[in-house]
## 1
Amino acid sequence: MKKTISQATIDRLPLYFRTLRLAEEESLQIISSDELGRRLDITPEQIRKDLATFGQFGRKGIGYDVRELKERIGNILGLHNHWRLAIIGIGHLGGALANYVNFASLGFSVVALLDRDKKIVGHKVNGIEVCDIARMKEIVASKAVDIGVITVPADEAQGVADLLVAAGVKGIWNFAPIKLSVPSTVPLVNEDLSVGLSALSYHMSQE
Amino acid sequence: MKKTISQATIDRLPLYFRTLRLAEEESLQIISSDELGRRLDITPEQIRKDLATFGQFGRKGIGYDVRELKERIGNILGLHNHWRLAIIGIGHLGGALANYVNFASLGFSVVALLDRDKKIVGHKVNGIEVCDIARMKEIVASKAVDIGVITVPADEAQGVADLLVAAGVKGIWNFAPIKLSVPSTVPLVNEDLSVGLSALSYHMSQE
C-alpha cells in the first residue's frame, strides 16, 4: 500500500477503527455508512468516499462487514505492528501519556520511561520504572522500542530527538512546541494540544 | 466572518499564529511564504492558498507583515476573547492540561479545576484549588468560565457535559473516548491523542 492518502482521511481512520471495534464488541456483524456516520458525526458520503480510497468494501444497500473493515483499516494504519513506545520526559504530560488507556486499545504499548531528573529515576509510573536518559541506547535495544515520545521542554527536545535517532527508533512523536530536525527515514509527527482548543475557539466565535 | 473555512485550514491556523508570534519576538517585521513554509514544513503554495481564504494579505515578492497577519489570524480564531477554561477530572491528563504552557501562549487561561474525588478536592494544581464538582454552577458563574474541558473517564463524561451545559459554558473540549450529546448551540471538539499516534504508525508502515 504505497498509495498516498490525504492527511484528513488518515486522521479519520483511527476513529473508524475504534468505532468498528466497539461495534464488534456489541456483536454487530454488518454496519451501514449511515450508522457509522451517526456514531461518528461524519456524513455517510464522506465515509463512503474515505473507504473507497482503499478499494472495494461493503455492499450497496447492506453495509460493511464490521470485522473485515476493522482489520483492513488496522492494517492500513499499521496497527498490527503493535508498536512499542518509550516516553522521554516524565513530567505531567509524560505521566499522563504513560497512563493513557486509549493507546492499548489501538495496539500500542508503553514499554519504557526515561528522564534525566535523578529524583524521578527509579520511581514507577503505571508499573513501569523510570530509567536515566543516559541509558537510552541500551533501553531502546533491550525493550525493542519502536517509537520515541518526546515530552521534555522545548529547549531539550532536539537533543532528545538526536539521542532517539542514534538509538535506532523507527518514529518520533513530539509534544514539544518546536520544529525538530530528524532524518527523513524517521517519520515524525508533531502534536500540539492547543490546535484542538483553537478550533473550538474558532467555532465559539462563529456562534 | 461567517464564511466557512475547511477544518484542515482551521487546524493550520494555530500553527501559523504561533510561528508568527515567535517571528514577532525575533523582531521580524516581514515574512515570506517561503520562510513561513520552511519553519512549518508546509509548502509555500499551501500557505498562500490558506491565507487567501481570508482575503488579501501580503505583497507579491515582499511577504506578509508579521504583526498584522498574526493579529488577523488571532481574530479569525477568536483568540482575542481570552477564553477561560475549567478542567473537570483532575487525574493524570487533567493535571497535565492544568500545567500545559502552550495554552497561555495562545491567550487561553485555566481558571478552575473540578473533581468529584474528596481526596483531591482542596488540593492545589499549578496554583489553582481543586473544587468539588457539586459546585459546578457556582464556579462557572463566579470564575466566568467559557470552556469546559472534560478529562473524566468515558462513563462519567456525558453527566459532566450535562452539568457544564446547565451551568452555561459556551463550549466543550472533550478528551473522553465517547460521543457526547450537547445542544447545537454549544460547540464541542473531541480530542483523541491516539489519532496522531496512528498517523505516525501509518507513516512508519510506509517506510
## 2
Amino acid sequence: MPDPVLLVLDAEPSPRLGRLTGRVEVRYADASSLAGLLPAADVLLVWDGVSDAVREAWPGPGARPRWVHTASAGVDRLLCPELVASDTVLTTARGVFERPVAEYVAGLVLAFATDLPGTLESQRQRRRHDREGQGVAGSRAVVVGAGPIGREITRLLHGLGVTVALVGRTARRTIHGVADLDRLAARADWVIAAVPLTDSTRGMFDTRFFGLLQPSARFIGAGRVATVVEADLVDALNRRWLAGAALSTFQDEPPDTGSPLWDTPGLVLTPHLGGDTVGWRDRLGERFVAMFERWSRGQPLPNVVDKALGYVPSSDLAEDTAPNTDSPS
Amino acid sequence: MPDPVLLVLDAEPSPRLGRLTGRVEVRYADASSLAGLLPAADVLLVWDGVSDAVREAWPGPGARPRWVHTASAGVDRLLCPELVASDTVLTTARGVFERPVAEYVAGLVLAFATDLPGTLESQRQRRRHDREGQGVAGSRAVVVGAGPIGREITRLLHGLGVTVALVGRTARRTIHGVADLDRLAARADWVIAAVPLTDSTRGMFDTRFFGLLQPSARFIGAGRVATVVEADLVDALNRRWLAGAALSTFQDEPPDTGSPLWDTPGLVLTPHLGGDTVGWRDRLGERFVAMFERWSRGQPLPNVVDKALGYVPSSDLAEDTAPNTDSPS
C-alpha cells in the first residue's frame, strides 16, 4: 500500500512534521495549485487559517481528502456547501490558541485600565501623562462565546478579580444564554467577543450593539473578524459611544494605508497578536503529528468540527470553567 | 480642651475629611509655610508623598506634631535624623496602593510579552506589526521586596501562571533572602523592583545588577525611585543587556524634555501610573479618617513606620503570600 499523501497548503509548516518522514508523501500546494492537487490527497493540512483557497478549490466533482486539519481555531474560511455535505472530517487546532488569546485579552484589559496607549503617546511627545488609571479588580466583563477560548478568557480575567459573565448560545450552568447579552453588555466595563463565525453571529457586533454600551466600556475582538461590523465600530468610537476597542483581525489583511481603522480614537490594532506566541508553529506541528498517528491507526480524531454548526461543539469539553461570580439567575 | 490642629501639606485632600468637621481645626501648609506652622500642629497629613518639604522644614528646635501620616507607601522623602530621633509616630497609606501597583505590573508584563508598545508604534505608522508574542504562563519572575506591594504583585503574577520568586531582606518561609537575588535574577524573564528606599537598597539596581540579566529580560520599577540608578538602566538598555524596562517614578519629576529617558530603546515611562487609580484620593481620605478616630481615642495606630528601618515592618502582616512555586531551597 502506498504511503498516504499529505497535502500542505501555504508555507513550510513546523519542522515537527519531520517525524512523519517515510510514512507519508508530503506535497505542497498554494492557492493556484490546490484544486488540481486535492483529488490525489488523503489529508489536507491548512496552515494559513485565514486563506479562502480551500473554499475556492473545493467545489465540483472528484475525489477529495478524507481529512482536513486547519492550524487555526475557526473554520469559517474553509466551509463551502460541498465540504459541509461531504464525508470529509474537519478538525481544528483547539488547545493551542486558548491561553495566548486569553493572555492577550487580559493584557489589553490591564493596558486600557491604566491607559497605556495614551501613556506611550505622551512619552513619544516627551510629556508627562497625568491621567489616573482605573482599577481592574471589581470591574465587570462580559465574554461572548463559551467555547474553549471564551472559557480561558473567563478564567484568566476572574483570576484578576474581574466579575465575568460568560455568554453562550444557550444558557447552561454557569453560562448565560444569548438572550441575556444586551442586559449584561449594558453594564459591562469590558465586552470581549470570542464567538465563532456562523450565520447567527455574522455581524452581531454592530451599531445596535455598540449603542447599548456604557461610554466608559471597551470592546475587545478576540473572535472571527466578520462577527464585528468594522464600520459600525469605527462610527461608535468616533461618537464616543464607547471608550476604546481592540481588533486583532481585519476584513482586509492588513488594512489599507487609507483605512480609518488606523487612527480611530481609542482603537488599538493588534494584528494577529491573539494567538501567535513564540513556538506556536511547533505546538501546532506537534498536535498535528499526534492527530496523524491516531488517524493512521483508524482511531477517532479529537477536535472534530460539527460542519452544520460551524465549530467544534463544546458538549464534550470538561465543564472546567472558573467559578463565575456573575452566574445566570 | 481645644480641638486638635490637623495640618494638611499640599493640596486639598479628599472630601472624606469633611467627616472630621467640628472635631479638628484644619490648617493648610505648603512647602514655604510648613516650618512656621509645624510647632502648632498636633497631626500632620502629608498628601504628596514625593515632596521634600517635611525633611526640609523639620530640623531645628521646637514643638512638633505627635503624629505624621503620609498618603503614600514610602517614607524616604520624609525622614530626617531629627524626625527619626523624635517621639513622633509616622504612619503610611499601606493597603491603598498594593492592588493598583500589582495590576500595573501585571499589565506591563502582559504588554511587554505581546510587544504592545511596538504594536502601537506600528499602528501609528499604519504598518502591520508582525512580531510574535511571548507566552506569560510558565515564564519566570523575581519580585524584589517582600512588603505588602511585593506580595500583592507576587499573588497576581502567580495567578497568571508565572513562576514567581519573592526576595526579601532575609529568607523566611516562602521568601528568598537577598543573597539569592543574583542567581534568581540571572534566569528571570521579569525583574520587578518593589523595595523601600533604605541605606541598603539605595542604587541597588545598577550596572552590576543589569549585567546579570538575560538579554530577553524586562525590568519593572515599582518601588522608590532612588533604588534604581537611572543612568545605568539607560546604558544597559542601549547596550541591549536587557530587552525592556518600565519606570513610573523619576529622579526629576517630570524628566527634562532633553532627558535620554524619553527615547531609550525598550524603556516605557508610566509616570505615577503605579498607584493612582480613580478614587484613590477618596480611599486615602477614608483610611485617614478611620486612623484619626483611633488616634483621638488614644488607641494604637496601624501601619506605623519603624523609623530606624525606614518602612512598616512586615512581621505583623498575615503570612498570606500566594503559594510560591519557586520556593527557597
